[in-house]
Amino acid sequence: MTKHFLSLQDFTSTELTGLVDRALELKQQRRDGVTHNRLAGRIIGLVFEKPSTRTRVSFESAMYGLGGQVIFLSARDTQLARSEPLKDMARVMSRYVDGMVVRTFGQDVVEELARFATVPVINALTDLHHPCQVLSDIMTVVEQKGAIEQLKIAWVGDGNNMANSWIQAAARFGFELALACPEGYEPNQEILGTARSQASKPITVVRDPAQAVQDAEVINVDVWASMGQEEEQQERLRTFSAYQLNDALLALAPKTVIVLHCLPAHRGEEITNEVLEAYHEVIFDQAENKMHMHKAILETLLNPQA
Ligand code: CP
Ligand code: NVA
């Protein structure tokens, strides 16, 4: 059976912890000048239907860093743009490459590709999940705080793809998660229900950002309008105005709190320039960690015996 990575539910707690440990080890090895060629002769295809800076470059540099190669395809330049069925795309790509990294709109797209692909399909962001990002964010928390299980993590803003993946992460890693979202912008209820049934600590959704950040050791924020929601931008600016991470909100959290932002950031909206710059070291470590985590994921899925 080909193993895919479409959401954090696809891996057990032990497997996810193993990926975090391995990514931290790979980061240290890169610092020490240790190189690997574990994926020499392997090729991944990146199929992206939405823009990307970090995820694309970090997957590409991860693959090159492991001795492999990549083919980047903007979906609009493929026959998908002329309605070639996903099931055909999946079977054709499987004959050419050893793995597919896909960024798209519907989760059903990555699911359909995975159903027909005979090589691993990796979710590089859908409207529903951003699992690779949240896994590298957890690596950043472990790097900063030593461990994650004992912490309260806060999410402030939209109950979007990132929020959904954080919810699944809470169930798998066993930390407390408090999300503050405006009415009508809550995370996916099915994902929330499943995660709560598996979780050992509370996963709460509240309205008040102050309540979410109280006692939190990590505060996560993300854009108010995700890719594909550009037309809602003005309305969202109004709805989310009380959800900005600024000095006043930050002051309600412990002094030891860290701020995470998966980037790109809209300064003056979900986060002030002051708060982002005050935490720039950890936020850009967070961006760097995507590459180390992608190496760990690629090693595991493309070379499980290694
Ligand atoms: N954080 C993240 O996924 O960034 P990109 O959209 O630049 O890939
Ligand atoms: N929620 C954002 C994340 C960007 C990395 C989006 O989907 O656009």
TrEMBL record:
GO MF annotations, alphabetized: amino acid binding; ornithine carbamoyltransferase activity
Which keywords does this Swiss-Prot/TrEMBL entry list?
Answer: Cytoplasm, Transferase
> Does the record's keyword annotation contain Transferase?
yes
Specify the pathway: Amino-acid biosynthesis; L-arginine biosynthesis; L-arginine from L-ornithine and carbamoyl phosphate: step 1/3
Can you say where in the cell this protein is located? Cytoplasm
Q: Where is the Aspartate/ornithine carbamoyltransferase carbamoyl-P binding domain?
A: 3-143
Task: Provide the catalytic activity annotation.
Answer: carbamoyl phosphate + L-ornithine = L-citrulline + phosphate + H(+)
The record lists L-ornithine as bound by 161, 222, 226-227
Q: What is its EC number?
A: 2.1.3.3
Q: What region holds the Aspartate/ornithine carbamoyltransferase Asp/Orn-binding domain?
A: 150-300
Q: May I have one GO cellular component term?
A: cytoplasm
List the SUPFAM superfamilies hit by this protein, alphabetically. Answer: Aspartate/ornithine carbamoyltransferase
A Gene Ontology biological process in which this protein takes part is: L-arginine biosynthetic process via ornithine
Give the residues the record marks as binding carbamoyl phosphate: 52-55, 79, 103, 130-133, 262-263, 290
Superkingdom, taxonomy of origin: Bacteria
- Keyword Cell inner membrane annotated: no
Cross-referenced PANTHER family: ORNITHINE CARBAMOYLTRANSFERASE, MITOCHONDRIAL, ORNITHINE TRANSCARBAMYLASE, MITOCHONDRIAL
- For this entry, the protein name equals Ornithine carbamoyltransferase
